[in-house]
Amino acid sequence: MRAVAIRRGETSPTVVEKPRPEPATGEALVRTLRVGVDGTDREVIDGTHGGYPEGDDHLVLGHEAVGVVEDPNGTSFEVGDVVVPTVRRRPEGRTNDYFERGQADMAPPDQCLERGISGAHGFMSDYFTSPEETLVPIPEHLAPLGFLVEPISITEKALHHAYVSRSAFDWRPESALVLGNGPLGLLTLAMLDDYERTYCLGRRDRPDPSIDIIERLGATYVDSRRTPVAEVPESHETVDLVFEATGYARHAFDGIHALAPGGVAALLGVPESWSFEVDGGSFHKDVVMNNKAIVGSVNSGAAHFESAVDTLTDLPDWFVDEFVSGVYHLDDAPDAFVADDAVLKTAVQFDTY
Amino acid sequence: MRAVAIRRGETSPTVVEKPRPEPATGEALVRTLRVGVDGTDREVIDGTHGGYPEGDDHLVLGHEAVGVVEDPNGTSFEVGDVVVPTVRRRPEGRTNDYFERGQADMAPPDQCLERGISGAHGFMSDYFTSPEETLVPIPEHLAPLGFLVEPISITEKALHHAYVSRSAFDWRPESALVLGNGPLGLLTLAMLDDYERTYCLGRRDRPDPSIDIIERLGATYVDSRRTPVAEVPESHETVDLVFEATGYARHAFDGIHALAPGGVAALLGVPESWSFEVDGGSFHKDVVMNNKAIVGSVNSGAAHFESAVDTLTDLPDWFVDEFVSGVYHLDDAPDAFVADDAVLKTAVQFDTY
């Protein structure tokens, strides 16, 4: 079968031939329909995130997949069921409390593998196998868009953690600031439709398709070159929720000062080591005196995938149409990974339902 | 009546004469029994925290009070009821959502007054008046220790906010690190008796009464001069909970790295502006990749006072005996504010029950 992989020492993905996998006991064989691409894939390709499976000279890419059960292999699925796989897997021969308790998404990096990212092959191949408990069934009619379930689930988890952190009091958020107008930022903005006022920060010039979407969603575009995060309170307002999806480390600090009292910042970006000066005293004091919270969030669990299905169903058609800017034939798969301001969300097509 | 106050321009408190207050409608008149002293009082005296009531040349100190209802004045209290007052009050003639929703503890500093701290006279006087809804009844037998209800309530709130922030998953904390061996740190350590392993950070030499208490509580004393917070994971372990009660801003950063995956840091200290260099990239990445949370917490609400009463009841007698190192006669009130390593928790006595 064909697979899209990054080979050790290379800087762009290629289509390779691999044997079709055989499902082990408890695993189903899935025929892949589409696999989405995101910033993490680019970091994996660049070598700044994740890593190859032990002993392998390549990593099959892709962690945002949707497929059809081809061989249930004794699992409770039926042939033809549309499924989305979760990403994290137990390291072979090892177990730990996170997997034992069914919350692999809470495991630290050294206690899990991530398919398509870190130490385990991804889903960008004609077929993949996966344990029954890692496959989330979705309605048939969502098959073409099922590759959006995983990225939506990332935001579902982050918002869940952010919201519970404010559940000790009567929190009534009205305003939100999304940091980043990449795919995750735009998806999140679309999910925050119950906020009265939303802002989305980017650094692009008009005309730009992400700015068009931001404004059509009723949000205010904040150009960080003119209005840095630290100035959002003065230029606009303090906000109840900050959702950071940039990986720009200064945002973890400036975003806190942009919060209203009792607000929460969800951090999702993964920056590299970078030392800089901060007014740590004012940061600390602001967090305390204004009862602010910061939650970091990575990955997501099966429950977040399930709520993501509902969220996906509710997204406006126009949004999905504009958001998914390109679905690439397998022969053109490498093009799906090219970063370009005109490109929002891309996916590679393997088969149709 | 007599009151302990700090006068503008002075650097130590004095006993002053003031007229006995008349309860307004909805307020009870309370005869003061004891009022505790803490680090915030010292900051108020030093002028680094809080401020005088508008137009007054002095501030009556004290926010950790216990008293007896002298005149119910139409409230539901009866003469002789033992009560503890909450600290925050609505600024006169103004209201806001925080007070409307009964969560004054979530108000930002500019939308509330704090008795004995910021803009409103405290409870360190023979009598004080307070609105019915700000007086929490406590059992008679707790009258001598009732001044501990307010400081315990501070930790009740911080732990409440920390715990709910981890309620999105099955969190089973086993280890905790309390930063600071001052009164709040020691009280908190005593409250963390369901943790398997606890650590308390300080910077004192033995023999020292706080270290004695730390060890009798079964905790490990961490001398920050030998083991900085950043080295706690290597020297001891990463911990599920960090409770910061020092006001030392670097702890807000180093404490995060001392957290185990999925851990939470509660920040309570109030440092001044202080710029320093941090590896903001690693901080941000650690928070995200390990699903960590940070919650700031200040003040407390009536519900936290109520749970503090239960907590106070459960504290071991030996702890309270050693912890309360001095109860001062009103004539010696200024001595209760002197910071000294031999002194743990002090209070000023006005009357007996």
TrEMBL record, chains A, B:
It comes from the Archaea. The keyword Oxidoreductase applies. Its cofactor is Zn(2+). It is an enzyme of class 1 (oxidoreductase). It holds the Pfam family ADH_N. InterPro entries: ADH-like_N (IPR013154), Glc_1-DH_arc (IPR026583), Glu_dehyd_C (IPR031640), GroES-like_sf (IPR011032), NAD(P)-bd_dom_sf (IPR036291). GO terms for molecular function: D-glucose binding; glucose 1-dehydrogenase [NAD(P)+] activity; NAD+ binding; NADP+ binding; zinc ion binding. Gene3D superfamilies: Medium-chain alcohol dehydrogenases, catalytic domain, NAD(P)-binding Rossmann-like Domain. Its EC number is 1.1.1.47. Keywords: Carbohydrate metabolism, Metal-binding, NAD, NADP, Nucleotide-binding, Oxidoreductase, Zinc. It catalyses: D-glucose + NAD(+) = D-glucono-1,5-lactone + NADH + H(+); D-glucose + NADP(+) = D-glucono-1,5-lactone + NADPH + H(+). GO terms for biological process: non-phosphorylated glucose catabolic process. Substrate binds at T40, E114, E150, N299. NADP(+) binds at N181, G182, P183, L184, R203, R204, L268, G269, V270, S297, V298, N299. Residues 26-140 form the Alcohol dehydrogenase-like N-terminal domain. Residues 1-25 are annotated as: Disordered. Residues 144-350 form the Glucose dehydrogenase C-terminal domain. Catalyzes the NAD(P)(+)-dependent oxidation of D-glucose to D-gluconate via gluconolactone. Can utilize both NAD(+) and NADP(+) as electron acceptor. Is involved in the degradation of glucose through a modified Entner-Doudoroff pathway. This is Glucose 1-dehydrogenase. It comes from Halomarina oriensis.
